[in-house]
Amino acid sequence: EAVPLEYHRPLKIGPARVELASAGHMLGSAQVIVDWHGERIVYTGDFKLEDNLTCPRAEIHKCDILLIDTTYGRPRYKFPSMAECKEMLLDFVDKHLKNGVTPIVMAYSFGKAQEAMKMLGDEGFEMDVHPRAFDAAQIYIRHGVKIKNISLLGEKPTPGRAVVMPPGVLKYQSTYGWGRFKVCFLSGWTLDRVYGANGGNGYGIPFSDHAGFDDIVRYVEEAKPRRVFTLFGPPDIAEYLCRLGFKAEGASFNSGHHHTPRANTNFDLFSSGV
What we know:
Layout lengths: L10 E3 L2 E7 L7 E7 L2 E5 L21 E5 L12 H17 L3 E5 L5 H11 L4 E3 L1 H12 L7 E3 L9 E4 L15 E6 L10 H4 L2 E3 L7 H11 L3 E5 L3 H9 L4 E4 L23
Parallel strand pairs: 4-5, 5-12, 6-9, 6-10, 7-8, 7-9, 10-11, 12-13
Antiparallel strand pairs: 1-2, 2-3, 3-4
C-alpha cells in the first residue's frame, strides 16, 4: 500500500519512525530519514545542497548510517554556481535569437528542464517545449511554481523562441523546415568531453541537479555518520572518505544510473556489524 507522506511529517511503521525531507534534486524529491532501534539512518537519494529556482534545497541531516548519492564523486566535478549557469544560459539563448538562430536547450524532462524554463521565462524569453517536459511543467505549475512563457512544441519551432527538449530526442526528430539552430546541453557531464552537448558537437553548460564533489564531502563531514555507503558513483569516493577518517564503502544495486562506474560491494543494511 502506498502512503503519501509530506516533508517533515513523520510516520511510524512498526519500530521505525520514517520522515521525508527535501533532496533538492527536483520538485518532490526526498531524502528518507529512518529512526530505528536508537539509530538514525539517512538515504539522500539524488540530492543538491545549492539553492534551486523550483524546489527547496537539501539540508544535511546528522545520522549514524548514511547512504549517499555519489554520482559526481570525483574531484573534477566542481560545478559553477546556479547564478553563473543561468548567466551562461541567458547569453547562449539571447545571442542566437539575435542572430536569427533557434537556440535548442537540451535538459532532462523532469527537474532540469523546469529549472531552465524558469530561468528563461523569468527573463522574458518565450519557449516551445517538448511534450514530456511541458507536461512535467504543468505539474510544477499546479504545485505553485511560476513557470512563464511556455508553449507546446509543434512540428517546428516558432521564430523568435527558444526550444527546450530532452537529450537524445533531436536525433529522432524531423528538423525539416526548422531553419538554423544551435544546441546547448545542460548537464554536469559536460565537464567530460565524451558527454559534451549533442555527443560532443555543440555547447555544454555544467548545470547539474546533483551535488558536486565538494558538496558530497561536505554532507558526510557535517552529518558525522559512523558508517557511510556510497551509491551510484565511482569507487574512488569511498576510498577518499576512508582517508578522511570515515568508515565508508561502495554499495551497488540496480539503480538506473548508467554513466558512472559502480563499486562491486553489496550490503545488507540490517546485518550485524552495521
